[in-house]
Specification:
globular, alpha+beta, Jelly Rolls
């Protein structure tokens, strides 16, 4: 018997769509959609028990996209999908038309039709940080799902900055919550360096334009998202 039970993609999609329909919209500094109870609990467990060690990154430089770090990143690309049912079900759920359509309607992004799904499993350890930045144009939207646990986890949310890159707030990092935003001139975000006792675990889910450079990061490199 496999552990844990992994829900069917349709059930995951239905659960997530309920969370997105019930989201709270925050307008401070830039628009963000905040969700609770994002994924079925058994899928959260399925991700947390994946036999993927947190990468050892001696100096991240405040960015994830460094040549020496890219090989240590974990994307729900075909290999992980083939090896682990939780990765397969997760990716199939967010590839489904009803999920993509709800993203498109809620965020006002018709370009999701014909885009590609990108999912990264991030495990930050002590010393990790991200400089204030804005997402590139190729990302149509970004969603961060927090799977953090432990007494310090509440302090591990994404930091928000103003135009001068001055810190002005922080997302909640409560377990199984999420924040979604779209790239824009105001969407400065990052992660100020602070102690991480344990592992800061999160999922980043993106729909990206067909021009996305790193095809090996895509869940389905030969299968664009469709709203039909």
């Amino acid at each position: 018997m496999s552990f844990p039970h992994v829900p069917e993609p349709a059930a995951i999609a239905e659960h997530f769509c309920g969370a997105l329909r019930s989201c709270t919209v925050k307008e401070e500094y830039y628009r963000r959609w905040v969700l609770k109870d994002v994924l079925p609990k058994s899928l959260c467990v399925g991700v947390l028990v994946l036999p993927i060690c947190p990468p050892w990154i001696d100096e991240c430089g405040g960015v994830r996209d460094l040549n020496k770090n890219n090989l240590k990143r974990s994307f729900f690309a075909p290999k992980l999908r083939e090896d682990f049912p939780a990765c397969q079900a997760f990716a199939e759920a967010f590839q489904r038309p009803e999920v993509a359509r709800l993203f498109s309607e809620t965020l006002g992004i018709p370009e999701i039709d014909g885009s590609y799904l990108r999912i990264e499993y991030i495990q930050d350890t002590d010393g990790a940080w991200l400089e204030p930045h804005r997402d590139i144009h190729e990302k149509l939207c970004s969603m961060v799902i927090y799977l953090t646990t432990g007494p310090e986890a509440k302090n591990w949310g994404t930091d928000i900055y103003d135009h001068d890159k001055k810190w002005c707030g922080r997302s909640s990092a409560d377990f199984n919550t999420a924040a979604i935003f779209t790239p824009g001139p105001h969407s400065w975000h990052g992660f100020d360096k602070r102690p991480i006792i344990g592992v800061r675990r999160l999922m980043e889910v993106n729909y990206v334009r067909p021009s996305w450079r790193d095809r090996d990061q895509l869940c389905f490199p030969d299968r664009p998202v469709t709203l039909a």
